Amino acid sequence: MNQQWNFKVAMVIKERETQGVPVLVLSGRLDMFARNGLKDVMEKYQEAQTRRVIVDMRGVSFIDSAGLGVLALMVKAFQDFKGNVIVVNPQDTVRNILENVNFSKLIPMFQTNEDYSTFSALS
User: Fold this and answer.
1) Is residue 123 exposed (0-12), middle (13-18) or buried (19+ Cβ within 10 Å)?
2) Exposure pattern of 1-12 as b/e (b: 16+ CB <10 Å)?
3) Quick count: other Cβ atoms within 10 Å of Cβ 89?
4) Where is the STAS domain positioned along the sequence (predicted)?
5) Fewer Cβ in 10 A, N or C end of the chain?
6) pLDDT for 33-49, tens place per residue?
7) What integer pLDDT is reported at residue 3 of this predicted model?
8) Percent of the chain with pLDDT over 90
């Protein structure tokens, strides 16, 4: 019996804007297979020295160390030119991982509504 398993699930990154601030809406798995795609998108904003980027993680079902690493690199690159990255709407499992590795000290995390007009801090 031959079976083929494909565990690689694509990360979809949609770009939008709210009140002049870029929003990256992520869905899928933020893992070693997706890190380069997110890195490529973020480099565009870094090169333009965009002051703020919102990363909406409501559709991210999984994050591994490679995903954490690319988020950390993004934050560092933005801090180098006084910009910042915020994470909004992480699912509970992703939020727990981010909190367990103290990512909330590096990246502010919030819950927000659909149009990003209201932000509530996550503890």
Assistant:
1) exposed
2) eeeeeeeeeebe
3) 23
4) 11-123
5) N
6) 888 889 999 999 999 98
7) 45
8) 46
